[in-house]
Amino acid sequence: MNDLEQRYRALSRQFHPDYFYNATPAERRASLERSSYLNDAYRTLKSQGTRVEYLLKLEGLDAGESKSGGRAAPPPSMLEEVFSLNEELDEIRDMRARGGPETEWRGRLERARQPIESKRVEHEGQLAELSSRWDAAVDSGAAAAERREILDALQERFLERNYIGNLLSGIERELGT
């Protein structure tokens, strides 16, 4: 069991409303609030994506904006893939509209999904590695410039991750799942 889960369980036992059954109404209410905050915090921190998003917000960075401050456009590293995927999706939609065989257009969608799914897995690994670097930098008291470099990289990977998620969602919509 990891440290986060151990701490969550310990605090959960400490603040759970069941242990405050005979307490005053104010103590029961406080227990319920603490338990609710604890559950929210645990849900946020146990998922890598929500943890990174929360960290970026804590550090004053918008998880939905690029470093230049604008809304995130397709990341430059993915422009060619995005363009190719959109062309493929347009062709598949045309094929469907013309009554093309379902097995054919579904197969094309599945083939289109594979490189995007591979990129998603790659980005999850990069986020995990950057998160570990962030934790180590904070634990060691690293200089602000080093921490900022890691935060910028986290922000970019997070933006790319979200874009990849949107691409995969588009494919899923076309598949009707």
Helices and strands in order:
Elements: H1 3-15, H2 25-46, H3 48-58, H4 79-97, H5 102-140, H6 144-175
Helix pairs in contact: 1-2, 2-3, 3-6, 4-5, 5-6
Span of the ends, CA to CA: 34 Å
| Low-confidence spans | none
Structural shape: flat
Structural class label: mainly alpha
| Helix content estimate | over 70%
- Average pLDDT score: 87
Q: How much strand? A: under 5%
Largest sheet: none
Task: Give a written overview of the molecule.
With 177 residues, the chain is an all-alpha fold. It has a domain at 68-175. The chain contains 6 helices and no strands. It has helices at 3-15, 25-46, 48-58, 79-97, 102-140, 144-175. Helix 1 (3-15) packs antiparallel against helix 2, helix 3 (48-58) packs across helix 6 and helix 5 runs antiparallel to helix 6. The model has no long low-confidence stretch (mean pLDDT 87).
